[in-house]
Amino acid sequence: MTEDELVEAIRPFTRGSGDDAALWQPSRSHRSVISTDMLVEGVDFTRNLMPLEDAGWRAMAANVSDLCAMGARPVLATVALGFPKEIAREDVLALYRGLAECAAAAKLDIVGGDLSCARDLTIAVAVVGEVRPSDAKLRSEGRPGDVLAVTGPLGAARAGLGIARDGAAIGEDLELEALRAFRRPRPRVAEGRFLGASRNVTAMMDLSDGLSTDAARLALASGCAADIESVPVAPAARALAERRKEDPQRFALAGGEDFELLVAVRPRAFAHVATRYAARFKRDLQRVGTLRTGSGVSFNGARLDRSGWDHFAG
Amino acid sequence: MTEDELVEAIRPFTRGSGDDAALWQPSRSHRSVISTDMLVEGVDFTRNLMPLEDAGWRAMAANVSDLCAMGARPVLATVALGFPKEIAREDVLALYRGLAECAAAAKLDIVGGDLSCARDLTIAVAVVGEVRPSDAKLRSEGRPGDVLAVTGPLGAARAGLGIARDGAAIGEDLELEALRAFRRPRPRVAEGRFLGASRNVTAMMDLSDGLSTDAARLALASGCAADIESVPVAPAARALAERRKEDPQRFALAGGEDFELLVAVRPRAFAHVATRYAARFKRDLQRVGTLRTGSGVSFNGARLDRSGWDHFAG
Fold first, then answer.
1. Quick count: other Cβ atoms within 10 Å of Cβ B242?
2. Which pTM value belongs to this model?
3. B159: part of which helix (H) or strand (E)?
4. I need a surface site. Which of A92, A121, B100, B293 has the fewest CB within 10 A?
5. What ipTM was assigned to the predicted interfaces of this complex?
6. Closest CA to B179 of B165, B191, B190
7. What are A119-130's pLDDT values in tens digits?
8. How far is B118 from chain A (nearest CA, A)?
């Protein structure tokens, strides 16, 4: 049973759009957005690969990124923590410090939470944001012909995980870049709001499980196939892949938790959107492929199996 | 380190009122409320004491009850689930069915969530509700002289836990009543909204950890002492306590998860509020004591140590 199959099985009990975050309407002129994510020690993070402060940061970043994917502005978060009774008070505070630092960077408040005992350290964050009704983006509105693009190069977080686990000799600067991407990923708040405000962006989601997996999700939700033509690879990911004699683009395709955004853009407007994006953010909105009628994902013409992260597969 | 001490230690990282739920303002005329709670198998529930459907119900009920305590109407929930890879698909669905049944009873939608691997089955729910600004109640606004009252008799859930664990011969009807209170507790949605709308109710919270513990929290937040004079005891709790040769009121004082509401009411208005409550709900708003200047909690004149549930004590 894969994660997506399980999500499908519980769908009858929920009123979800299939996006990671959900919209609701607290008043006629406003839309709120909510999302939740759970991180478990030993599954989503391990203390030997990152300090607890960084685990806290990443838990908040993963949730904030789900709001970014809808074009929303983060407003607040709640935090439910489960941890062993024997945990040191300093460890709980370190975790909370990381959560709070990421919250401050994304300009949202942690407004409350819950503490519980658990064998494994468990962090469940829920975040709420706001978005103008006309700016809210889903993953399901892409159309055949749309250009697929990402907000930045991919694979740095995967390279950071590899370096934290096995070490690597790719030079100090690239190692630091990769470790930072892995431990302190930056949710694309401003980028998400900018792209959400564009009428030419038809669908958006964040890349949490790798482009190969997440492009398949966007394509499936939009009732399309996705053809990936090229993958922008972060310098650290390229260096690590080459050192390991792996294909850098495939390395980056399978790399989760970059938290870049994946968008579908109307083809005739793509150049315009990309120019405005580059002027605003001093980096490129990088074309990775197109949507077309059909189903599935291809890379350079060959059908691509999902290579990204799935909690329940295998 | 107790749970309350830990909550105090992480307070600098948060913007919380000390209530279980937090208020925010999505637009000028609206207030939204959010709350989160985490339940962990082996700590908050065990499968040998209740089916997973009931565990799901209780997880949702605990969260909804936090909204009730603020006078809010529940609107939506997100659910983050962590569970072992080997779990049966039917078990996940049973858990979700219980969550969804309680959500339907409280008239809210489950709008999304997250699935994660974990050694222990872990349920983290976040609920959002709405409340008119003038109806929102905190636990911190009680005043010396206010009458303390509860929305119904206490101890039934504790009796149900005892019966599920050890059995008891208190008669089939009382056993069923106690087991239902334990496995399918009913959050006081209508009662909370009714009391929230009363200007004479100064403070409100839900009884999740037992009156002795929660009255101490309300008193501390309000800068008062609480004198408990009498405790309304649910029939099943009285029968079980007597069978065990325990004092029924002390049994009920320490009984958590009844999810009745505890309110502070202006003394001259109490009779009026109680009369209207009884007319509306066909049950009594039961006086349990008063707030006064000072600190701590007494029961029948003797200082009461906390006897309720604390995740991290001892």
1. 14
2. 0.88
3. helix B156-166
4. B293
5. 0.83
6. B165
7. 999 999 999 999
8. 6
